[in-house]
Amino acid sequence: MSRRPCRGSAARLGIVLVHGRPYAPESKGKLERWHRTCRDQFLSKVEERPIQSLDDLNARLWAWLEQVYHRSPHEGLDGQTSLARYQQDLPKIRSLGPQMAKLDALFLHRVRRLVRKDGTVSYQAGHLEVPFELAGKNVRLLVDPHAETVVGVENDAGESIGQATPLDALANRDRRRHKPDPVVAVPVRSPNAGPNLVERVHAQDYGGQED
């Protein structure tokens, strides 16, 4: 995941990200120590022969994390296990409250696009249709980062404004557009003509007397 989607997801959760300075490993000592432990205790002991896929490797990683790493005493925690240290601070963990129901949506990626005149947007060398009334406007596509598919469209305020569907070029050609109402031309009134349109309407609605 790129840094920008991480920032967006964190902001929606009310989390402030603090990054270490580039080329300063001492400012990321805990992370560097984790990399060393992972190499020494996990990667060095993984047997390649039974691993058939990335899922196999991930399954072994999670098994090691949950059954070994999290349950082993750590010198940096004064001999506590990382699981026990985590459980110690459970009362301090902030609840997401109503946001929990839309947790998956908070982690969707947002991709900004300008809607074309035909009501389409481009995404990954293809095109998608969005509600035609959005033509000419900037929108944000909601992208599932795992499936790499667009699941919706929202405005800058984070409000849902429709769906995005794969472009059907043939159907789009005959797509019904919402054209503005035609302007009705008002004829120029001759000096010798009777009461103009305003006067006639006034007479009908307010009882005015026509000349």
Automatic annotation (TrEMBL):
What Pfam families is this protein classified in?
A: rve_3 (PF13683)
Record Gene3D superfamilies: Ribonuclease H-like superfamily/Ribonuclease H (3.30.420.10)
MF terms (GO), sorted A to Z = nucleic acid binding
Q: Please, one GO biological process term?
A: DNA integration
Highest taxon listed in the record's lineage: Bacteria
InterPro entries the record matches = Integrase_cat-core (IPR001584), RNaseH-like_sf (IPR012337), RNaseH_sf (IPR036397)
* Domain Integrase catalytic residue range list: 14-81
**Region (Disordered), start-end ranges:** 172-211
PANTHER family named in the record: TRANSPOSASE, TRANSPOSASE RV3428C-RELATED
The name this protein goes by in its record: Integrase catalytic domain-containing protein
Species this protein is from:
Candidatus Accumulibacter cognatus
